[in-house]
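user: Please review this fold.
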Amino acid sequence: MTLLALGINHNSAPVSLREKVAFSPDNIDDALASITANGVASEAVIVSTCNRTEIYCKIATGETEKVTQWLMDFHQLENNELANCTYRHYDIDAVRHLMRVAGGLDSLVLGEPQILGQTKQSFAKAKQCKSVSQILDKLFQKTFTAAKRVRTETEIGANAVSVAFAAVSLSKHIFDDLSKTRVLLIGAGETIDLVATHLAEQNVQEMMVANRTLSRAQGLADKFGASILTLEEIPDHLHKADIVISSTASPLPIIGKGMIETALKQRKQKPIFLVDIAVPRDIESQVGELGNAYLYTVDDLQGIIEQNKEARQDAAQQAEHIIADEAKLFEEWVASLSSVDSIKEYRQSAMNEKELLLERALMALRNGGDSEKVLHELANKLTNKLIHAPTQALVAAGKRDNDDELLVIRKVVGLDEQE
């Protein structure tokens, strides 16, 4: 039996290739059924995100190429398309890799938390499709334990290392409780989408999305329950916003000093926090000169991010130790499985001897035998049966003058414990 992690990610392949091997909700059930039903793997979990596609599986030793071929066949790829783009990890290395992935140590953004949820969803889907049994079930449970420890025992997720996360984190320093704030987002691109995601996690009171194209803004509004504005409507609604975060491709500023002055008057000088992520800038730099207007640019955020990256690197070192500990525990559990069959066989043998001798003793009692004599005979015969094999092993080790073997047998039969 071999544990295999076969994958492709943001480090090993461009997005054009990652798209080809990605699994969608529409085909993941068929994929899990196919990989197990066709004898490629006896157990399998597929983790597929925008940055990675990975197959964790239990296979017969030496049959890695079957999994690679299955992946190419399933996605109808040419034979050379995956050459030099996939990576493979085996057994304990596969365990450590999965734990690093779930802990955010292998992510594009170090320590990002979304991958843990995605890994849990992938495992749940595999369980639902019955492609998981004893080994992978235990592996993923131990992985979730490791990831939880990484989150609770280190600061790997505490510091912002993306512009979007940094913008929201900075907002939390200005406003103690974001659930009481109203937010205006300007733009509808990927960065604003991510900002909106982080804000939604903070349960902001209200979210407005302004964009040049209302159809793009509508997509965000539907996703996060926000209202939409055109760029021309911003001056009429700006005074409602406690937080303004802007990221557009506009060549000219969208918000000027005069617009903010008017909004502050309408707010009776209640502070406005503004983050300009755009390059070129969406908000005139003179806005920062106004009292009660707190303006931060992408350069300000970058300084915060660089400091936090260093902090996350320190936390990552701690996380690696946690993962090493949890991986070792899983390895020891797998090793213990090899003794399970022997233990069952030994126990069954002893139970068979007990049942045989007990039946004889009960027969003797039913035939009028002396109960004390019958019990003594039962005890003596059972003892002799149980100590016969260990006695023979001790004698053989003594004849071979093998002290190491003798010590092992003594330990097994409990003689050293008695001493």
About this structure: Residues 2-153 form a domain with the Beta Polymerase; domain 2 fold (CATH 3.30.460.30). The chain has three domains: 2-153, 163-303, 347-418. The two ends are 40 Å apart (CA to CA).
